[in-house]
Amino acid sequence: MDMDRFGRRDDLASPAQRGEDPRRDDAEVKEPPTQLWVRSPQATPPIPEERAGQAGPERQTLPWSPPPGDGAARSSPADASAQPTVPGALPARRLARAAGRIASALGALASALERAVAVRRARDQGHPRSRKVQWRRRLRRWAWRIAMAASTLLGLGLLMFAGLIWYYGHDLPRTSELRSYHPPEVTRILARDGTPLAELFVERRTVVPISAVPTSMKLAVLAAEDANFYKHEGLNYLGILRALLVNLRSAQARQGGSTITQQVIKNVLLTPERTFARKIRELILARRIEQELTKDEILELYLNDIYFGHGRYGVEEAARYYFGKSVRDVQLAEAALLAGLVKGPSVYSPRVDLARAEERRSYVLQQLGDKKFVARADVDAAARQKIVLAPPPEHASELAPEVVAEVERALIAAVGPQANRGGYTVTTTIDPQLQRAARAAVRSNLDAYAARRGLIAPLKRGKGDPAPFEGTPTQGSERVYHGVVTKADDAAGTLTVRVGTAQGVVKLERAARYNPRNLPPSQFAEIGKVVRVTFAGGDPRSGRLELALGPQSALVALDVRTAEVLAIVGGYDAARGALNRARSARRQPASTFKPIVYSYGIQTRAFTAASILETHPSALGGKYRPDNYDESDGQAPRRLREALAQSVNVAAVWVLDRLGPAKVAEWAQSLGVTSKLGADLSLALGAYEVTPFEMVGAFNVFAAGGTYRDPAIIRSIIGPGGQPLPLPSAAPARRVMGEAEAYIMTSLLRSVVDSGTAKRARAMSTPVAGKTGTSNAAKDAWFVGYSTDIACAVWTGYDDASPLGPGETGGATSLPAFIAFMQDAHKARPRTDFAAPPDGLVRVLIDATTGQLALPGTAGATEEVFLAGTEPAAYAELPSSGEVPRIMWPF
User: Which of 233-237, 253-257, 704-708, 713-717 has the lowest mean pLDDT?
Assistant: First the structure.
């Protein structure tokens, strides 16, 4: 250091230079000499001479002395003088003096340094160059400090980032699952000709491969949502930064800055809520997905998952809904409109706001041109096209909602719980034209009943009104009550009805069946009129009532040759989830069960069509006493053909008694009746409940020449991947009776139409056979019959088994629906009659009274058909004057 440049450093000069006495140090530290003894391993330190004679407490303590018992025993004063001095021992005073000098020198050095620094600072303050050097030093110091702080913060940030990645990333879904991801899809139910019947879905979606999506659709979505999709690695960092700034300003997650990859993660793997935690997980997964899947695979997931409004998910369903076509066929203008919907389906839907939809489409087209995805000329041409939407699908009713439950059962049986994920295409056996005809026939028939029973508005009070219900309605019951109209509100379109202690409101818009002229409530029903009502959901507390004025009906039609279901109607209303009475309603078949009894007699050869049957109740010997519908029956025995045609009750019971109820019940099961049947005489009159499906299946055996097939409603099931699935195993067709036996039953049932209780059907253009049925008090009205092509069963009745009313029978209440449906079903079919089999039958002339062979020239002789070997062998006797001919049996 240049000392002269800044002045002499007096604080560093020697004492002689400063004019001080160089001995000053020695004078100040001089003191009596003190001896310090250092212990030797072989000797005990001696006691100084001046202290040798002292002992006890007056003994001076040394800096070091051996503890008692350590080494040799303490020496006496006399021994001390004899011990030699330990080599290297220094007097303690001399050492202390040396230490003091060193300390003094160090203190002086420190003071000198402080004075030097102070002087230097004082001089530097006035020197320009020194100030510049000082600022450089300060800058270097602060730069160093900032660098250290930044490095520390960066390290802490990296540690925090690693911690966040671990915290939010250790339990994330596996991205490999996306390869096998199958979102919920639509299951489509089709008629036999491909006509849509119904759809099943949790989310209305149809998955299509990326190869099926046209380029215009892909580019439109990329232009609207993520133009750099094929360039980035899953994250748009500028977009994330922009969204972060917006979110920080608003103190909440308002903007996402998401790429298509991130949107796939949000929609498929995570939840859509706007939280920072979800965003961090999304960023982590985005990188993983980009490493796991190709860009096309990610885009395919996106196009099939996004929501387009009005309950439609994915580009395929969106194209079908808005344009009535597959996404494969959309044009550039249509693709731009669909791509614009993604940002806000409820805002930009053309069915909601056409102007905003067109504005959004223009933006997407502009993006396509600006990003050079599409030639400008094509963009301009697309922008000039008008938006043309397909007609909205009808939601009021479906063609065959009754089929839905049937298909659901079949799918569960075929694939199990996976059926709930959808994506299947189920082709049914339903003929759409016959389904429409069946629905129309049922409704027309019920409307005719309502008109003749006074159930069509205006409803007037009358003496025949039933007594209103009094009391408290039952909670959770579907019971029908007789309520009293207490108020009519034309403005609200409602009737207020009192039901005992409860009160409810009927909305006339839901009672169009009974209000064809659309009368207001004040004209629909008089105040005080008693009407049939039910509480919605069986809850009287809801205050919602439904009119239940008229009965319900069911119709099932089968293809005779295959037993495939051609049409099925479960009630007046075509509503999904409503009671399907064709499948589920178990009601008494009444006289429609009689052909089952007689068919067993024919099949066992116990009876023939010409067998004479007792018709008077006394013939039963008191076992059972049924009444005949026609009081004239029972006056004389009747041939089996006549007894069946006229539906004589006693005759059927008499035959059952001889055949054995248990055997007939077993026979009915072989014909497809699965309901529980009792083995007693009431079985002959259809006292045990069955379904329309069971009855049409049994009669179809007669129509099909004696072969039973389970009624089928599913033709094929195609899985989500396009592969056909095996159908639930069905019982193989089995022969129940011979062709000749079945033909005789058809011949007998033709008599019901020709001369019996179904004579109304003679007006049909095609030959039919069948049987009417009416239960006690006319609670159930049936007609079950068939042509050469179609078997059909119709049931009519109230759900609560209330009587249909006087004069309501199977021939009057259900047969008209059968006729209307069969006439419509056979319009395009050639007229064909029932053909007899070539073998096993014999036709002979018989006497109409006795059933025996008729003598030549006998008046009133009629031809009858028999199984070969069961025809009568004897001739009827000629009656003498006043004689009643004697009955002879042919076997």
Answer: 253-257
Q: What is the pTM of this model?
A: 0.73
Other residues' Cβ atoms within 10 Å of the Cβ of residue 210: 17
- CA 187 from chain centre, in angstroms, equals 11
Instruction: For residue range 852-886, list pLDDT tens digits in order.
Output: 999 877 888 999 999 999 999 999 876 544 444 44
Q: What is the DSSP string of 784-806?
A: EEE-SSEEEEEEEE-TT-----T
**Number of Cβ within a 10 Å radius of residue 412:** 14
Q: Which of 201, 219, 702 is nearest to 422 (CA)?
A: 201
The secondary structure of 718-745, three-state, reads: ECCCCCEECCCCCCCCEECCCHHHHHHH
From CA 511, how far away is CA 524, in angstroms rounded? 10
Angle between the N-to-C axes of helices 739-755 and 594-603, in degrees from 0 to 180, rounded to the nearest 10: 140
Q: Where does the pLDDT of residue 503 fall: very low under 50, low under 70, confident under 90, or very high at 90 and above?
A: very high
124 touches 21 (CB < 8 A): no
Mention every residue, 6+ apart, whose C-beta is less than 8 A from residue 493. 507, 508, 509, 520, 521
Instruction: Give the Cα separation of 469 and 864 in Å (integer).
Output: 56
Whether 317 and 308 have beta carbons less than 8 Å apart is answered as yes
Distances (CA, A) of 761 to 55, 374, 749, 782, 797: 153, 68, 12, 14, 21
Max CA-CA distance within the chain? 190
Does the structure show a pLDDT above 50 at 629? yes
Residue with tokens 């049994």: 698
Three-state SS string over 303-334 comes to HHHCEEECCEEHHHHHHHHHHCCCHHHCCHHH
Give me the helices (H) in 258-370, please: 260-264, 276-292, 295-305, 314-323, 332-341, 345-348, 354-370
Q: Sheet with 307-309: list strands edge to edge.
A: 204-205, 312-313, 307-309
Residue 640, burial from CB neighbour count under 10 angstroms (0-12, 13-18, 19+): buried
Residues classed as catalytic: 225, 591
The region of weakest confidence among 159-173, 539-553, 697-711, 817-831 is: 159-173
Residue 62 or residue 258, greater confidence? 258
**DSSP per-residue letters across 121-134:** HHHHTT-HHHHHHH
The chain-wide mean pLDDT, for the chain, equals 83
What one-letter code names the amino acid at 280?
I
Residue 57 pLDDT exceeds 60: no
DSSP single-letter state for residue 662: H
Residue 161, H or E segment:
helix 128-169
Classify each residue of 668-702 as buried b or exposed e, where b means 16 or more C-beta atoms within 10 Å of its C-beta.
Answer: bebbbbeeebeeebebbbbbbbbbbbbbbbbbbbb
Q: What is the pLDDT at residue 48?
A: 42
Closest to 505 in 3D by CA, of 477, 485, 526, 481: 485
**Single-letter residue type at 863:** E
* SS3 category, 481: strand
Task: Give burial (CB, 10 Å; 0-12/13-18/19+) of 602.
Answer: buried
> Which of 508, 583, 567 minimizes the C-alpha distance to 821?
567
Distance from C-alpha of 205 to C-alpha of 424, rounded to nearest angstrom: 11
Nearest to 792, CA basis, from 771, 776, 813:
771
- Rounded Cα–Cα distance for residues 354 and 880 (Å): 95
Torsion of CA 885, 888, 890, 891, to 10 degrees: 170
Hey, CA dihedral for 613, 618, 619, 622, is it positive or negative? Answer: positive
Question: What is the rounded distance in angstroms from the CA atom of residue 758 to the CA atom of residue 37?
Answer: 147
Q: What is the pLDDT at residue 118? A: 74
User: Alpha carbon 144 to chain centroid distance?
Assistant: 65
State the amino acid at position 493 in one-letter form.
G
Q: Find, among 872, 834, 257, the residue nearest to 609 by Cα.
A: 872
